[in-house]
Amino acid sequence: MKGACFCGAVSYEVTGDPTLRAFCHCTLCQRLTGSPFIHTVHFPSSAFSWTHGAPHEDRLDAYAVASKPHKTRWRCKTCGACVMSANAKTGSCSVWGAHLARDDAGKIIDWDRVKPTAHMFYGTRMLDVDDSLAKWEGYENGSARLDL
Ligand SMILES: [Zn+2]
Ligand SMILES: [Zn+2]
């Protein structure tokens, strides 16, 4: 699947199936994006590659928050959109569903492959979501389930 930042200067491709796809209500995602929750999709880092012109780093800024030094977040130097984070500890990376390529109707292409299966870090939610997906305190299948 292909994705790009807000302005299009930075683009990427991910291959294969995600290892996790969920709505994340954690406080880091909230503060980073200014949104109550975001749609995150995790892949093995080996499945990810930049597709804009090389050297790829010329168009990117990298940074890490003090509480998670093993996690590098990459954002577009031009528009500031954070398009990918790579976790050196787990060997995985995350992209945001909203950046994935759309069809002419504005729908994400191959939606069924990345469609969220859960709400995670729901304990710090800013709003209740009344849908049929499971709600987890932390990671899906790795924390207490809140909707039972
Ligand atoms: Zn951009
Ligand atoms: Zn999060």
TrEMBL record:
<feature type="domain" description="CENP-V/GFA">
    <location>
        <begin position="1"/>
        <end position="137"/>
    </location>
</feature>
<dbReference type="Pfam" id="PF04828">
    <property type="entry name" value="GFA"/>
</dbReference>
<protein>
    <submittedName>
        <fullName>Mss4-like protein</fullName>
    </submittedName>
</protein>
<keyword id="KW-0479">Metal-binding</keyword>
<dbReference type="InterPro" id="IPR006913">
    <property type="entry name" value="CENP-V/GFA"/>
</dbReference>
<keyword id="KW-0456">Lyase</keyword>
<comment type="similarity">
    <text>Belongs to the Gfa family.</text>
</comment>
<dbReference type="InterPro" id="IPR011057">
    <property type="entry name" value="Mss4-like_sf"/>
</dbReference>
<dbReference type="GO" id="GO:0016846">
    <property type="term" value="F:carbon-sulfur lyase activity"/>
</dbReference>
<keyword id="KW-0862">Zinc</keyword>
<dbReference type="GO" id="GO:0046872">
    <property type="term" value="F:metal ion binding"/>
</dbReference>
